[in-house]
């Protein structure tokens, strides 16, 4: 039985990652667990007989004085070895703790530990597949586990022991069938979790299964949650200021009156009532989200039709549902019926997943992801695959089980997650979706968003990017090779090879193989042809990563068209041959699965050939097409991008049905720039007659902000790039040292970012700090941000694309350094094409596009600094153009009225010292 197992939960802290390179243990802790009870603990500091690096001291809070009188490892090694015998060894990332400990035991002459293992990283990923991060500190916060001091062995070991119990408790709540399916695959895991699965399953079979689940082909599914019925009472909009104050004060803790927010409430409610279209720019500090949610929700309840709220990212959709809507419910004392609706591809296809369960898994990643999905299906109500936190290899598997078919079988209609979402969208008060969904709705035979009473488009400036993305086409060499590789030849285990199990006449199979080989040959020939054209062009650069406009190359359509013809011939023949009525050596299920796979990958080929034609063979004047590549990895890095420059028609086509249904509110924190009020709205294709309202934060909201312009930075045009980077690195180092970290650094070039970070690393001047850099440090944007927040002595380096939507309230961020004013590079192919079109129309590309675009980015960068009235921060600009160029005033006028000081680098240090000691 599970209760008879004895677990030793171990955590160690070390001077570094490699015992073989001389790193040593500085603290070791063991927590003994039996019958889910903590029976005993052991903890000791260890003298490593070497200095503890500053970074390790900052991370673990273990100082030299803590270990100076501690025993050497050889003095406690035998005791540790004896304590761990006859226990299952448990650790969070067992590969590190056990491997390091084994190496140290060997070093002092003790035998290797022989034990079963449980990795709580592996266990937690299976039991909680939808949490954001599997780092111990993040899991502890998510699962309400006390973790007093992270990265201290005693506290980490205790938290890991509680995590082990949480995982076991979660496993025990799963239905028997799910545990059976998990146990079947558990023998392929990296630690001995099969022991736990078997014992929980044995116990579970003796107990009564009390939880109710839907089942699809013996896969347990969470029951659909019923929406709250709408209360039979009206909610009145608080028209008077006194009514608003009474409502907010009674229901929101620590409420601070924001006059701008109340004005925003009134303006939006008026617009919805009058069914007009308006634009609202609401600065940080206004309370924009609640400012549109309250009037929109009340209006929807009045009309008994849903209000549609659209934002840009999945993260923001979840934030609305999980944070803002509950806040509004508390404010109104009303259960709001909320539905989320995303594109079909976000949802799981249950039939495809069931079919994959019948196959042998291709890899550890596939096995592991299948197990995560099995658990997730018992806890998800939405069936949205973005809820899952899977590995890179796991993402490849998720692509295989996405919902892509427009029609669903009758037996699946009631439980299919996409169909569920559609049903909810018809019965809600608030329908939350994203910009991409609105844009895609115009192409549907039956529009999904046509029944709303009004529409709020949040992050309105991002609607432009969403529209561009919808029309953008991208050719990726590696992606094409992956798709083509799914077919193989008759002597492989790929799709063509598996046809040998069907009694298709050999001449037909050989014909298909010949047509497939023709695709590969014509594709490879076309790629070589493109590479030769690039090499023969006049492009010269000292950088390995380059881009070049397609119109700068002399390409022959015939060679490119051969690829399309070869794919079309193969797809046509494959559809005819594969689905012909031949006797099969496969059973009905296996045959159905194989045919479904053929259908899926043939449809992928059809998508690919359409992309190929669109990119290489179709020319439109109002678009930019360019090739990106890295000279160090051709053709692997070869990417071709086609992007539209004008998307007015696309946006208006999507929005017009919503205009007919009710009012439209476009809102954003940054939608105007000085001297070009209509810069964003004109790109959206909005009429100049649509009013733009601006709502400012209270005057004292930015009292904790200042802007410093460093006057003695060199002119980048007068010095070499290396000299300029040295000056930038010096300014960053001085700033970080005086502020103690908590610093963002914003670049316009990934190349300059990389070289600056490498120079700082080489100097070791910031060796006591954690440096996180976009494009250099692994992980997503949100993961880098989480890592940055975890350490007080940290610096985060990013480019323009990194900053929008990043929110770091409080002391986690104290300084933003803007290295260069965020103009687009004049060599950027997209900018060059846009400038060419503006020039043709008689406009100045700089004043009409380049400057307002940069000013908008400048505003967005500044907007990351102060996220609450109590925040304090400094915005440092290293680019002297903001001072010496006439357009510098456009940047300064675009941000709130805060103190602006021109200082030398030396005086900047003094100013920062004075500012942060006030």
UniProtKB/TrEMBL annotation:
Coiled coil: none annotated. The keyword Hydrolase applies. Residues 731-916 form the Helicase C-terminal domain. GO terms for molecular function: 3'-5' exonuclease activity; ATP binding; DNA binding; DNA-directed DNA polymerase activity; helicase activity; hydrolase activity, acting on acid anhydrides, in phosphorus-containing anhydrides. Keywords: ATP-binding, Exonuclease, Helicase, Hydrolase, Nuclease, Nucleotide-binding. One of its GO terms (biological process) is DNA replication proofreading. SMART domains: EXOIII, HELICc2. InterPro entries: ATP-dep_Helicase_C (IPR006555), DinG (IPR006310), DnaQ (IPR006054), Helic_SF1/SF2_ATP-bd_DinG/Rad3 (IPR014013), Helicase_C-like (IPR001650), P-loop_NTPase (IPR027417), Ribonucl_H (IPR013520), RNaseH-like_sf (IPR012337). SUPFAM superfamilies: P-loop containing nucleoside triphosphate hydrolases, Ribonuclease H-like. Its EC number is 3.1.-.-. ATP binds at residues 282-289. GO terms for cellular component: cytosol. Belongs to the helicase family. DinG subfamily. Type 2 sub-subfamily. 3'-5' exonuclease. This is 3'-5' exonuclease DinG. It comes from Psychrobacillus insolitus.
């Amino acid at each position: 039985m599970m209760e008879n197992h004895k677990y030793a939960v171990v955590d160690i802290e070390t001077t570094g990652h490699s015992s073989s390179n001389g790193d040593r243990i500085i603290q070791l802790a063991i927590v003994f667990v039996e019958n889910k009870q903590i029976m005993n603990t052991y903890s000791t500091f260890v003298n490593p007989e070497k200095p503890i690096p500053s970074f390790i001291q900052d991370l673990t809070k273990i100082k030299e004085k803590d270990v100076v009188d501690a025993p050497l490892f050889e003095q406690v090694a035998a005791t540790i070895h004896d304590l761990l015998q006859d226990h299952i060894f448990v650790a969070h990332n067992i590969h590190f703790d056990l491997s390091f400990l084994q190496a140290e035991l060997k070093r002092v002459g003790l035998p290797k530990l022989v034990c079963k293992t449980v990795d709580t990283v592996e266990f937690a990923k299976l039991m909680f597949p939808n949490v954001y991060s599997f780092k111990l500190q993040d899991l502890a916060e998510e699962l309400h586990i006390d973790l007093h001091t992270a990265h201290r062995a005693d506290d980490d070991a205790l938290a890991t022991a509680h995590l082990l119990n949480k995982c076991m408790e979660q496993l025990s709540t799963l239905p028997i069938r799910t545990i059976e399916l998990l146990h079947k695959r558990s023998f392929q895991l990296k630690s001995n979790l099969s022991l736990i699965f078997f014992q929980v399953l044995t116990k579970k079979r003796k107990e009564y299964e009390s939880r109710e689940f839907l089942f699809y082909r013996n896969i347990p599914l969470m029951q659909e949650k019923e929406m709250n019925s709408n209360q039979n009472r009206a909610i009145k909009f608080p028209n008077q200021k006194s009514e608003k104050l009474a409502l907010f004060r009674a229901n929101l803790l620590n409420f601070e009156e924001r006059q701008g927010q109340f004005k925003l409430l009134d303006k939006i409610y008026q617009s919805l009532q009058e069914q007009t279209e308006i634009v609202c720019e609401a600065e940080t500090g206004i309370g924009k989200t609640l400012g549109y949610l309250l009037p929109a929700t009340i209006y929807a309840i009045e009309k008994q039709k849903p209000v549609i709220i659209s934002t840009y990212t999945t993260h923001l959709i979840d934030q609305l549902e999980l944070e803002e809507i509950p806040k509004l419910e508390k404010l109104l004392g009303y259960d709001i019926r909320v539905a989320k609706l995303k594109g079909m591809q976000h949802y799981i296809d249950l039939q495809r997943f069931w079919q994959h369960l019948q196959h042998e898994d291709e890899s550890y990643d596939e096995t592991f992801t299948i197990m995560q999905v099995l658990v997730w299906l018992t806890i998800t109500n939405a069936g949205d695959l973005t809820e899952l936190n899977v590995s890179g290899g796991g993402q490849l598997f998720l692509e295989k089980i996405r919902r892509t078919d427009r029609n669903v079988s009758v037996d699946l209609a009631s439980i299919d997650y996409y169909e569920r979402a559609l049903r909810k969208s018809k019965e809600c008060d608030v329908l939350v979706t994203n910009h991409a969904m609105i844009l895609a709705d115009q192409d549907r035979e039956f529009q999904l968003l046509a029944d709303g009473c009004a529409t709020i488009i949040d992050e309105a400036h991002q609607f432009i990017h969403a529209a561009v993305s919808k029309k953008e086409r991208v050719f990726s060499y590696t992606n094409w090779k992956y798709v083509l590789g799914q077919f193989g030849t008759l002597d492989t285990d790929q799709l063509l090879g598996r046809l040998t199990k069907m009694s298709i006449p050999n001449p037909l199979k050989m014909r298909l193989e010949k047509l497939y080989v023709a695709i590969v040959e014509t594709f490879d020939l076309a790629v070589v042809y493109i590479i030769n054209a690039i090499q023969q062009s006049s492009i010269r650069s000292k950088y390995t990563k380059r881009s070049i406009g397609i119109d700068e190359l002399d390409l022959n359509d015939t060679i490119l068209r051969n690829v399309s013809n070869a794919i079309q011939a193969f797809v046509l023949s494959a559809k005819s041959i594969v689905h012909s009525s031949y006797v099969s050596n496969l059973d009905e299920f296996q045959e159905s699965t194989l045919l479904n796979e053929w259908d899926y990958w043939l449809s992928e080929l059809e998508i690919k050939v359409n992309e190929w034609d669109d990119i290489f063979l179709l020319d439109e004047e109002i678009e930019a097409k360019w090739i990106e590549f890295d000279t160090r990895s051709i053709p692997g890095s070869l990417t071709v991008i086609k992007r539209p420059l004008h998307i007015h028609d696309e946006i208006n086509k999507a929005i017009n049905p919503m205009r007919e249904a009710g009012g439209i509110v476009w809102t954003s924190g940054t939608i105007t720039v000085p001297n070009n009020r209509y810069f964003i709205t004109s790109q959206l294709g909005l009429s100049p007659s649509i009013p733009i309202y601006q709502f400012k934060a209270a005057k004292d909201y930015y009292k904790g902000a200042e802007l410093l312009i460093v006057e003695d930075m060199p002119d980048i045009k007068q010095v070499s790039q290396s000299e300029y980077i040295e000056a930038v690195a010096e300014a960053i180092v001085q700033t970080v040292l005086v502020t103690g970290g908590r610093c963002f650094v914003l670049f316009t070039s990934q190349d300059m970012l990389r070289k600056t970070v490498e120079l700082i690393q080489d100097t070791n001047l910031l060796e006591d700090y954690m440096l996180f850099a976009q494009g250099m440090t692994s992980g997503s944007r949100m993961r880098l941000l989480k890592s940055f927040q975890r350490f007080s002595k940290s610096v985060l380096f990013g480019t323009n694309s990194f900053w929008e939507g990043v929110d770091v309230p409080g002391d986690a961020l104290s300084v933003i350094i803007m290295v260069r004013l965020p103009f687009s590079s004049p060599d950027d192919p997209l900018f060059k094409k846009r400038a060419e079109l503006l020039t043709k129309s008689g406009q100045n590309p700089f004043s009409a596009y380049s400057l307002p675009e940069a000013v908008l980015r400048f505003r967005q960068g500044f907007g990351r600094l102060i996220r609450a009235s109590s925040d304090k921060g400094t915005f440092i600009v290293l680019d002297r153009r903001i001072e010496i160029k006439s357009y510098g005033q456009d940047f300064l006028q675009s941000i709130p009225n805060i103190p602006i000081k021109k200082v030398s680098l030396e005086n900047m240090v003094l100013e920062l010292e004075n500012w942060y000691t006030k």
